Amino acid sequence: xxxxxxxxxxxxxxxxxxxxxxxxxxxxxxxxxxxxxxxxxxxxxxxxxxxxxxxxxxxxxxxxxxxxxxxxxxxxxxxxxxxxxxxxxxxxxxxxxxxxxxxxxxxxxxxxxxxxxxxxxxxxxxxxxxxxxxxxxxxxxxxxxxxxxxxxxxxxxxxxxxxxxxxxxxxxxxxxxxxxxxxxxxxxxxxxxxxxxxxxxxxxxxxxxxxxxxxxxxxxxxxxxxxxxxxxxxxxxxxxxxx
Length: 243
Fold this sequence. Notes:
Number of strands: 4
Strand content: 5-15%
CATH topology of the largest domain: Arc Repressor Mutant, subunit A
Number of helices: 12
Strand order of the largest sheet: 1-4
CATH architecture of the largest domain: Orthogonal Bundle
Mean pLDDT: 88
Low-confidence stretches: none
Distance between the termini: 48 Å
């Protein structure tokens, strides 16, 4: 991620933590909400505008740049022990997924069958696992990257293969696909590498969009699953006809 993108992402995170909206910023700076949205969407900020926004949060530009540096050190892969502990407690796994998606404490307890006492314990456990940095008032700072990867062959990957992916690929009748497309071909190594780079780019973009949308209320967001996979493969029907 470029430094400009990282700066914008960091500002959005800080705004969420301080519960400030674009409308709040526009009102304080006597600007239109559209102009503030344009600043963020185009990732175009003057130093003066940056300073004005940080002052609204009671922090300095130095604080923002320091947090940017910390963001770049976010965990991109969990340990086998961390993955196993998440799988041993379904509610802990759910809480981890929710904080990764930017859910607030009260949104979790309202949306899921998790009591306030349970949620406090789950947040404390996530803090001990170094997945979040717990702050007063059940606020937190996420310590895992949006595009973190499972350990190849590890507990989470096995769980995803055996439980999640199987059910994902077999939706119920009332669960239509938003998009589904299978494509095959016979590609050169250079073309395979191009496809891999583009799939990785889509993965990064999906992670960035998820982080950007995490500032919106839960009611304005939809749970979506996105599965991307590519490997050398030929249907057994065709394979059986080889000479």
